[in-house]
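Researcher: We are triaging several targets before committing to wet-lab work. For this one, the compound of interest is decanoyl-CoA. I'm pasting the protein sequence and the ligand SMILES. What I need is the predicted three-dimensional arrangement of the protein with the ligand bound, expressed as structure tokens, so it can go straight into our comparison scripts without reformatting.
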Amino acid sequence: MARTLCRIFKGCQSICSLPLMKTRLHPSASVLLRTVCVRRMLTLPFRFSPKAQDFSLPNSSWGAEMRQLYEHYNSQCEEEMKGEEKQDWAWKRVPSYNRTLKHATGGVYLSKIYQSKARFFTRNIKEPGAAFEYVLFVSKDEQKCVCIFQAGHLLEGPQGYVHGGAIATMIDTVTVTHASVLTLLIMTANLNINYRRPIPLGSTVLIDSSLNKTEGRKVLISCKVTSTDGSKLHTEATALFVVSRLLGG
Ligand SMILES: CCCCCCCCCC(=O)SCCNC(=O)CCNC(=O)[C@H](O)C(C)(C)COP(=O)(O)OP(=O)(O)OC[C@H]1O[C@@H](n2cnc3c(N)ncnc32)[C@H](O)[C@@H]1OP(=O)(O)O
């Protein structure tokens, strides 16, 4: 970014220092030109935005089904007003970034270079819609989590269907997010999956997770992957999470 800024600055300087400009422009016009150049420079779309991108917001790759379901859950995320008092949210959308390590503290030592290159597995493919396109919502009582998942063409396993490992990844992601709402710093200890019906590539499915129980350091969660109308069961799973001693639990 510094190099880009430098180049734009040099460009501005060279425009304002052109002999033609010096001779023909009134000094106040030259100041105005510089101001315009600097303003333009500040509004240019930089390649490296300092703001983290939230990948769980709608993009052009989302199909109609994905959008409809997103609207359905997102509309329930609005604040409810009762009298003058603000009520709790019914659902919360979970933002999703691709740099989890950037904010990590303690636990594992990683070199600066390694940290700067690390990307969250499900959010590391740049082409929208090519792989894991999903958004997660958690319920206000924190006992339920729903994910709308659209499986892109890079997730193929059997011809025309989603790879079992990609489905497992999504189940792990949804259940770990659910468990993280209940308790921090957890690791997946056990994931038990039954694949009942293949998921067509490009289709949208619902991943529903429910809390079974918590027991000391253990959190048990069950999960179902269904068609969006709930009529077809694709996958079911149970997951065990343990608050990690390594992570400070
Ligand atoms: C918010 C979004 C963030 C997204 C992050 C994405 C992350 C996605 C999640 C992952 O993929 S995590 C990566 C995959 N998992 C691992 O690499 C975990 C590797 N294993 C470990 O680190 C440890 O084995 C573990 C922390 C799971 C447990 O080790 P501990 O030494 O802390 O536990 P311990 O052996 O004392 O067992 C505690 C309890 O859990 C039980 N337990 C542990 N592992 C088990 C297991 N595998 N199966 C069944 N029970 C298990 C164990 O029996 C015991 O039960 P009791 O308290 O009733 O006696």
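Researcher: Any quick observations?
Model: Residues 2-43 form one domain.
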